[in-house]
Amino acid sequence: MKRMHILLGVTLLLAGCNLPLETDDxxxxxxxxxxxxxxxxxxxxxxxxxxxxxxxxxxxxxxxPLFAPDSPWNQxxxxxxxxxxxxxxxxxxxxxxxxxxxxxxxxxxxxxxNWPFMDVSYDDFTxxxxxxxxxxxxxxxxxxEGNLSWPSPKFGIQQEGGPVPVPLxxxxxxxxxxxxxxxxxxxxxxNPDTFEEYDFWQATTVRDAQCASSGGGLEGNAILEAGAxxxxxxxxxxSNPDTLSxxxxxxxxxxxxxxxxxxxxxxxxxxxLAFALPGLRNLSAxxxxxxxxxxxxxxxxxxxxxxxxxxxxxxxxxxxxxxxTIVDDNGDxxxxxxxxxxITQMFLTALRIYGAYPIDGADGFTFxxxxxxxxxxxxxxxxxxxxxxxxAGTPLPEGWSKWQVVMxxxxxxxxxxxxxxxxxxxxxxxxxxxxxxxxxFEVVQPAERP
Length: 450
Fold this sequence. Notes:
It is a single chain. By secondary structure, the chain is of the alpha+beta class. The chain has a domain at 86-125 and 257-444. The chain is built from six helices and 20 strands. It has helices at residues 86-97, 261-266, 336-339, 342-353, 381-387, 402-414; strands at residues 11-12, 17-18, 104-105, 118-121, 129-141, 164-169, 187-191, 196-201, 207-209, 212-213, 225-226, 228-233, 273-277, 307-308, 319-322, 356-361, 365-368, 420-421, 438-439, 441-444. Strands 5, 6, 7, 8, 11 and 12 form a six-stranded mixed sheet that branches. The chain has a four-stranded mixed sheet with strand order 4-17-13-16. The longest helix has 13 residues, at 402-414. The chain is globular, with a radius of gyration of 21 Å. The two termini are 27 Å apart.
């Protein structure tokens, strides 16, 4: 799949700094005149455009932890053995996060930010969640660049562009931003009664004409087109059969590994996390036909347009785990109870118990939380202050949602925790020759397929 985006940087108002850029890859499986497929419904046959400023916050709950107890997202990683090649894989990943693009393909791979720290996307380039409504519509499979794509075999429709049947949304929806065609346009429609999620990549809610999308980040009352669509039952594995992609390039469900308000409200993140890295491994002579050795369950395939040809680079679906003792960006051991906010301790605990899986491409080391436009954190101001490590009566920032306040503090803390620490590194050094003294992460045995 071919999916690429540029994260413009979420300004951390608490910290006064910017997060790194992000890229991702997605669907480009052929271009055909839109007139060659069944026309999508006329815009005047769909609900009217959404009024500006409509609240998009979720009014329903998700049954966390999502997916089956034996799914990879709920398997514990704290007892998994460390792989023999773990140190080598962490070194290659560290070099890439320092900016090494030696083994990235294509050779004009977008620049990777020199940023070997974690960050959590909670606005642009993550996942908003909406309720399904009554009735269905047919959606044309056409991405933001005007390219038609093939339906997932799960739909049983063998025609490029589809269209495919999907539920109508219950109201206004907004694919993730930014507001242009560089967005991922991810979006989930969820049915609380059937436990089914419909996942969209490059969903269109506003367009100039058929296959002429205005891009992501725009509100509407119907999904007019999408670059890719898939569906999952959140009581099952959250993974696809081998070789199938999804709204993620590697075939996993959009809700799998996502940090949700329900997790935070419950006091713990009781599932594995999902993250992205620059150019996941693809060693196939024909990258569009990945080797089975280049992806691990829960991934069912891997990146085919933006990838790494280094045999020690991280593969889609490999499992990483945070070490029990970690160091900061100065190489000093972190006293987590003293130095990190409770929300950050919650996040790190999940990385130790359940681990995390690389499921997408990015310009940095990026994890995912629900989009701030739909995330409804049902806590009091005092409880939010407790999560971010501030006195109960501290006023919350004016104009910020509670989810934004909590996620900003998490990102502020994560700026101190590198993938690995290199005592000799100085900006301007050759990233391909970087080394590290201490690693905070290790690569462990993959998840077991039930």
